[in-house]
Amino acid sequence: MHQRAQEFAERASREYGFEVEVNEFPEGTKTAADAAEAVGCDVAQIASSIAMRADDGLVVVVTSGANRVSEAKLADRLGLAEDDVEMAGAGEIKSVLGWSIGGVPPFCHDADVPVFMDETLTEFETVWAAAGTPEAVFPIDPTELRELSSAEVADVAE
Question: Containing H/E element for 52?
Answer without folding.
Answer: strand 46-54
